[in-house]
Design brief:
With 319 residues, the protein is mainly alpha-helical. Helices cover 77% and strands 2% of the residues. It has a two-stranded antiparallel ribbon. Helix 3 packs antiparallel against helix 4 and helix 12 packs across helix 13. The longest helix has 34 residues. It is globular and about 65 Å long.
Length: 319
C-alpha cells in the first residue's frame, strides 16, 4: 500500500454517541450557545472600549479573555454545526489539522489570560498602592504579546508533526472537532515523539498555569486574613469571585476529562464528549454572564446602553 493511500485525505467526525437521531434538535441549543458567546463577548469588548472609566488593567485583561473566548468559539463552530445540522461528518486532513491548531492555541491562551488575571488580583489586593505602577499599559501589552507568542509557538510543531504521519485506520475521530490526541490515535506509525511533545505542552502550559493560579490565591488569602476589618476582607475577596468562577468553568471539565481518560475505562463515550463540550463551549458562553453580574461598572454601563436604546425606541414610536 502506498504512503498516499495509507494517509488518506479526510477524517470523520462523531457527534453524541447513541443520539444520532436527534442531532438536528441538539443543533438548536448549540446554535444558541454560539450566538450567546458571540453577543456576550462582543458586548464586553465594546463596553470596555467605549467606557473611559473601564480603561484599567483589570478590564484590559477581561477584554483579552473575551477575545480569546471568541476565538475558541470560532475554532469549534465550523465542524460542530455542519455535523449536527447537516450531518456532514467528513473533514479534510489539512482542515482538521488547522482546526486542532486553533482550538489548542486558544485553549492555552485562555489558560494564560486566567493566570495573568490572577496576577492582577494578587497585585491589586496585596500591594494596591503600587497597582498602577506595576501594571502599566506597556506591561499589559507585553503580557498580551507573550501570551500570543507562547500559545502559537508551542502549537506550531503539532500539526506539522501530525501531517507527517500515515493514517491507515478507520479515520473516525471521537469528537465533533479535531483534537491532537484524537488525531494521533489514528496513526499507524510510532507516535511516541508526538505523545511526548503533547505531554510537554500540556504540563508547561495548563499544568503550570493551574499551579501558579492556586499559588496566587494562597497569597491572596494570606493578605485577606491579615486584614483586621471583616468588611475589608469580604470586599477584597468579592473582587476575585468572577475570576474564580471563570477558572472553575475552564479547569473543572478538563480535570474531569483527564480523570476519565486515566481511570475511567468503563466510562461511556458520551460522558467524555459531554465533558469535552463543557470544557470548550461553556466558558465562552458563561464568562460574559459572570462578569456582567459580578462587575458593577460593566453592569451599569450595559444597563445604560439598553436603557438608552429602549428610550430611543419609545421616543420613535411616540413620534
Amino acid at each position: 500500500m502506498s504512503h498516499s493511500n495509507r494517509t488518506g485525505t479526510s477524517f470523520f467526525l462523531t457527534g453524541l454517541p447513541g443520539l444520532e437521531a436527534v442531532h438536528l434538535w441538539i443543533s438548536i441549543p448549540l446554535c444558541a450557545m454560539y450566538v450567546a458567546s458571540l453577543a456576550g463577548n462582543s458586548l464586553i469588548l465594546w463596553v470596555v472600549r467605549a467606557e473611559p472609566s473601564l480603561h484599567q488593567p483589570m478590564y484590559y485583561f477581561l477584554s483579552m479573555l473575551a477575545a480569546t473566548d471568541l476565538g475558541l468559539s470560532a475554532s469549534t463552530l465550523p465542524s460542530m454545526l455542519p455535523l449536527y445540522m447537516l450531518g456532514l461528518r467528513e473533514v479534510a486532513v489539512d482542515v482538521c489539522l488547522a482546526q486542532l491548531f486553533f482550538i489548542h492555541t486558544f485553549s492555552i491562551m485562555e489558560s494564560s489570560v486566567l493566570l495573568t488575571m490572577a496576577f492582577d488580583r494578587v497585585v491589586a489586593i496585596s500591594n494596591p498602592l503600587r497597582y498602577g505602577t506595576v501594571l502599566t499599559s506597556s506591561r499589559i501589552a507585553g503580557l498580551g504579546l507573550a501570551i500570543v507568542l507562547r500559545s502559537v509557538g508551542l502549537h506550531i510543531p503539532a500539526p506539522i508533526m501530525l501531517k507527517r504521519l500515515p493514517y491507515c485506520r478507520h479515520r473516525l475521530l471521537s469528537h465533533s472537532y479535531c483534537l491532537h490526541p484524537d488525531v494521533m490515535k489514528l496513526a499507524c506509525a510510532d507516535t511516541r515523539v508526538n505523545s511526548a511533545y503533547g505531554l510537554f505542552v500540556v504540563l508547561s502550559t495548563l499544568g503550570l498555569d493551574s499551579v501558579l493560579i492556586v499559588l496566587s490565591y494562597v497569597l491572596i488569602l494570606q493578605t485577606v486574613l491579615s486584614i483586621a476589618s471583616k468588611a475589608g476582607s469580604l470586599k477584597a475577596l468579592n473582587t476575585c469571585v468572577s475570576h474564580i468562577c471563570s477558572v472553575l468553568l475552564f479547569y473543572t471539565p478538563m480535570i474531569g476529562l483527564s480523570m476519565i481518560h486515566r481511570f475511567g475505562q468503563r466510562a461511556s463515550p458520551c460522558s467524555q464528549v459531554v465533558l469535552s463540550y463543557l470544557h470548550f463551549l461553556t466558558p465562552p458562553v458563561l464568562n460574559p454572564v459572570v462578569y456582567s453580574i459580578k462587575t458593577k461598572q460593566i453592569r451599569l454601563r450595559m444597563a445604560r446602553v439598553f436603557w438608552s436604546s429602549g428610550s430611543a425606541t419609545r421616543d420613535t414610536q411616540g413620534h
